[in-house]
């Protein structure tokens, strides 16, 4: 039975720990893995811009002895002639042993996984999920801090359209870390992420954040996600000295902002002054990159700036994943039965959902019931 990686929820806790341990081993002795995937062929299909994700997947495949075919320019692929994703995937699946897909529409990788005979890995589906970035982020946090359980992580920036934090917030809470989500105004974590975390028994609530007034001029509001067992969230959170273990910064995803969104007031720049504030003194700074203007370049040689070490981790982590999904390393746990889908007459309200853009390829039963409503099984937005 093939395994895909479409959402971070597709991996069990044990799967994630197995992949991170393997990535650790690989990074300490990369050359001894040079023939693990001899003869295997990976297709990278990137219909949105990418530097790190595509290159690190390709480097990972080549370092395992495999080979790569790529289509990395949406303008020169047949998508620009009107070919559907469904048709492209049927064909690329026949050409290769596994597919890494980046696509502008939420749910695209889930559709591809249904149609491909080999494993499909989601390298970003619109504003929805980016599970392999989360594996890289967890790998980095473990290396920098020694563990995940008990960490206090601040997510900072565009948490609505930035897909990396959607996968990361869910994973951190699963591993016992607490998350404070501080977003640009109007760009907070989507409801489906927050409610999904609440559904695991975590404490979830809106908080007023005290302790940063000197830095930001006023009290910020944020969303606090506390792993199960830590109790209810307070209404005011006073950040203590040295409390923050990591601050995960994301850029404003201008390409996904709705037309006419206007100028979005940005959160303060992360620089040396920011990290002098007592709660952040021991915080490592992560960023999935590319950085635009969220982190001052004067921070790059500060030992707490971990974003380039983080990017380097992309190769061993993706080697572990490719080798596992292609059968060269111990298998992951059996996939869960998947979403229990029921035929519904609802409509997904998200215009950037694959169900809206390729209605002929997605089955009609694409909703699942959650407390008090229906969620689109492709993009996870609520149905109307
Ligand atoms: C991110 C992405 O594509 O979502 N980049 C990455 O994969 N490292 C973040 C971003 O583009 O801002």
Description of the molecule:
The chain has 384 residues and is an alpha/beta fold. It folds into 3 domains: 8-131 and 313-325, Rossmann fold, CATH 3.40.50.1370; 149-311, Rossmann fold (3-Layer(aba) Sandwich); 339-384. It has helices at 13-28, 52-63, 85-95, 108-115, 131-145, 164-174, 191-198, 213-216, 272-276, 307-312, 314-325, 354-357, and strands at residues 41-46, 67-71, 98-103, 120-125, 152-157, 178-183, 203-210, 220-226, 236-238, 246-249, 284-286, 367-370, 373-376. The strands form 3 sheets. The protein has a 7-stranded mixed beta sheet with strand order 9-7-8-6-5-10-11. Strands 2-1-3-4 form a 4-stranded parallel beta sheet, with helices on both faces. It has a two-stranded antiparallel ribbon with strand order 12-13. A hairpin with a 2-residue loop joins β12 (367-370) and β13 (373-376). The longest helix is centred in the first third of the chain and has 16 residues, at 13-28. It is globular and about 60 Å long. The two termini are 35 Å apart. The structure holds N-carbamoyl-L-aspartate (NCD). N-carbamoyl-L-aspartate (NCD) binds at residues 52-53, 124, 130, 133, 162-164, 250-251, 288-289.
């Amino acid at each position: 039975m093939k395994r895909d990686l479409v959402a971070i929820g597709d991996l069990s806790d044990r799967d994630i720990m197995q992949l991170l341990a393997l990535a650790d081993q690989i990074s300490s002795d990369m050359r001894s893995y040079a023939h693990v995937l001899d003869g295997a062929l990976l297709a990278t299909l990137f219909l949105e811009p990418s530097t790190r994700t595509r290159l690190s997947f390709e480097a990972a495949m080549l370092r395992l002895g495999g080979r790569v075919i790529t289509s990395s320019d949406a303008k020169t692929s047949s998508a620009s002639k009107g070919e559907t994703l469904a048709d492209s995937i049927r064909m690329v699946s026949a050409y290769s042993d596994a597919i890494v897909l980046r696509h502008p529409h939420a749910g695209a990788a889930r559709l591809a996984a249904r149609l491909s005979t080999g494993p499909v890995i989601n390298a970003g589906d619109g504003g929805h999920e980016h599970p392999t970035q989360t594996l890289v982020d967890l790998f980095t946090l473990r290396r920098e801090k020694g563990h995940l359980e008990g960490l206090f992580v601040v997510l900072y920036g565009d948490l609505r359209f930035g897909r990396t934090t959607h996968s990361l917030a869910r994973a951190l809470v699963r591993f016992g870390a607490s998350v404070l989500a501080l977003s640009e105004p109007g760009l907070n974590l989507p409801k489906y992420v927050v409610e999904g975390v609440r559904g695991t028994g975590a404490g979830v609530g809106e908080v007023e954040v005290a302790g940063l007034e000197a830095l930001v001029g006023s009290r910020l509001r944020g969303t606090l996600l506390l792993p199960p067992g830590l109790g209810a969230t307070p209404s005011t959170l006073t950040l203590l000295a040295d409390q923050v273990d990591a601050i995960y910064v994301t850029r404003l995803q201008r390409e996904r902002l709705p037309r006419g969104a206007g100028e979005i007031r940005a959160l303060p720049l992360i620089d040396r002054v920011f990290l002098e504030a007592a709660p952040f003194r021991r915080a490592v700074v992560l960023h999935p990159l590319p950085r635009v203007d969220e982190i001052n370049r004067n921070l790059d040689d500060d030992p707490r700036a971990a974003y380039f070490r983080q990017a380097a981790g992309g190769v061993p982590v993706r080697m572990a994943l490719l080798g596992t999904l292609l059968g060269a390393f111990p298998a992951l746990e059996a996939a869960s039965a998947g979403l229990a889908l029921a035929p519904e007459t609802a409509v997904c309200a998200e215009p950037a959902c694959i169900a809206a853009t390729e209605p002929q390829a997605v089955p009609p039963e694409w909703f699942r019931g959650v407390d008090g409503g229906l969620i689109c099984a492709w993009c996870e937005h609520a149905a109307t």
